[in-house]
Write a structure and sequence with these properties.
Helices cover 46% and strands 18% of the residues. Helix 10 packs across helix 13 and helix 10 packs across helix 14. The protein is of the alpha+beta class. It is built from 14 helices and twelve strands. The chain has three domains: 112 residues, 2-Layer Sandwich (Alpha-Beta Plaits); 208 residues, Trigger factor, domain 2 (Orthogonal Bundle), CATH 1.10.3120.10; 90 residues, Chitinase A, domain 3. The two termini are 33 Å apart.
């Protein structure tokens, strides 16, 4: 067997492998014999016909495919051993020559190699640490949001106005849909996310009023077949309900906090603590991101493209599941976010590359500083998480093991250990920042940090423990 080795950029090597003619003949013969067991030849029992009769009834493409399967694996393994190559992931194979006659079999394997990281400075880095101040407007907005969620909608005997909840029989007829639409009972908030012109036509109507009016569906409407289409709407009002937001009182504060806060003042203090906790976590995440970005910028990081491909594939699977649950397409999602599907896909790849670089940097720091995770570290982390989830450490460990995610949990512990080390050596420059009025409910951990903790925080000899 002849093997030609060609180093490539991005931690890859190309192996062009030529398998001897006699092995090709043997593989082709074996492929024919395997197929012969299932081929019917008149005058012979299945699997008992002479091979010369069988050959005429088996497509050459099938035999070529099976012969390649028989030849590639042992030849590839021998080539790796001959050149002392440890692959990082499965190779990309290209068939160059395979004939069903006495000629060598030639194929090319592009082999991903382990990533390489040459760290720059990673200790004593100077990093900005935002200290978020929570202005009163943030608390005011959060209280208003929760009061609005607690709104009641009693029936009223008056014409419709903005803010009302209207229950009506609505039919929309469009030329592209041949059958007439049947009126359907619908609940609509006037002033909500309705198509342009709908609210203007309904405002002023009273119970039992019926009105027909033309409208045009907007170009960004979720249902693609209706985008830009002219329609005739018929609306018959059945009920008008007025939105009544409860007054801000101590009684309301006690009700909405399930008794935790006795007064509006104590409720505001609770919301402030929640907001400060959220902003504190956000600050820590920004510090960690700043440290990792600095290290990555001064380090030399190389990895095979397959690493990104696998990460992107995983991200797109997650995105598809989210879109399926929302019952929208990628194009509709892009329109709603004022972007394009191409831009979304490009951003998925960019974010995947960021996570990979971050993970490789953290893994290299862990190796150089010998920051190994012990069983005691994992036990302590499980106990801490179990306490926050109001369960027992034994129950949480059993759950992680049953789901097969204990290795991912261990990697998250590793990530935290490395980040704690880097934070401890960094020089923090606090900078007071006013928090935006984004509400006080806990912010979701950034996807990059979450996935890095689960998958790429340590150097491994394979793509991922979870693949």
């Amino acid at each position: 067997m002849q093997v030609t080795k060609e180093p490539l950029d991005q931690c890859q090597v190309a192996l062009t492998i030529e398998v001897e003619e006699d092995k090709v003949v043997h593989a082709v013969d074996r492929a024919y014999r395997e197929y012969a067991k299932y081929v019917n030849v008149p005058g012979f029992r299945k699997g008992k016909a002479p091979l010369q009769f069988v050959r005429q009834r088996i497509p050459a493409s099938d035999v070529r495919q099976r012969a390649a399967e028989l030849l590639v694996e042992p030849a590839y393994a021998e080539a790796l051993k001959e050149h002392d190559i440890t692959p990082y992931a499965q190779p990309k194979l290209e068939l160059i020559q395979l004939e069903l006659e006495s000629k060598p079999f030639i194929f090319k394997a592009v082999v991903p190699l382990p990533p390489k990281v040459e760290l720059g400075t990673y200790k004593g880095l100077s990093v900005d640490k935002p200290v978020y101040e929570v202005p009163e407007s943030v608390i005011d907005n959060e209280i208003d949001r929760r009061r609005e969620r607690a709104a009641e909608y009693p029936k009223v005997e008056r014409p419709v106005k903005t803010g009302d909840l209207v229950i009506a029989d609505i039919a929309a007829n469009v030329e592209i849909r041949p059958t007439m639409a049947e009126p359907r009972a619908t609940m609509i908030e006037i002033g909500g996310d309705n198509i342009p012109g709908f609210d203007d036509n309904v405002i002023g109507m009273s119970v039992d009023d019926e009105k027909t009016f033309p409208l045009t569906y907007p170009a960004e409407y979720p249902e693609e077949d209706l985008q830009g289409q002219d329609a005739e709407f018929t609306v018959k009002v059945k009920e008008v309900r007025e939105k009544q937001i409860p007054e801000l009182t101590d009684e309301l504060a006690k009700k909405l906090t399930e008794g935790r806060a006795e007064t509006v003042a104590s409720w505001r203090e609770e919301l402030r603590k929640d907001a400060e906790s959220v902003m504190g976590r956000r600050s820590e995440q920004e510090v960690e991101t700043g440290i990792i970005d600095q290290i990555a910028q001064v380090s030399t990081i190389s990895y095979p493209p397959v690493l990104v491909d696998l990460e992107v594939e995983d991200d797109l699977r997650d995105l598809k599941q989210q879109l399926d649950r929302a019952q929208i397409t990628l194009e509709q999602y892009a329109q709603r976010n004022a972007t394009t599907s191409e831009a979304i896909l490009a951003n998925v790849r960019i974010e995947a590359e960021k996570r990979i670089r971050a993970g490789l940097v953290l893994g290299e720091v862990a190796e150089q500083e010998k920051l190994e995770v012990t069983d005691d570290d994992v036990t302590a982390a499980i106990a801490e998480q179990a306490s926050g989830e109001n369960t027992t450490p034994a129950a949480l460990r059993a759950l992680l093991e049953s789901r097969g995610t204990i290795n991912s949990f261990r990697n998250r512990v590793q990530t935290k250990k490395v980040l704690d080390f880097l934070r401890g050596s960094a020089i923090m420059k606090e900078k007071v920042v006013s928090a935006q009025a984004e509400g006080t409910e806990p912010a979701e951990e950034p996807k990059a940090a979450k996935k890095e903790a689960a998958k790429k925080s340590t150097k491994s000899k394979k793509v991922s423990d979870d693949q």
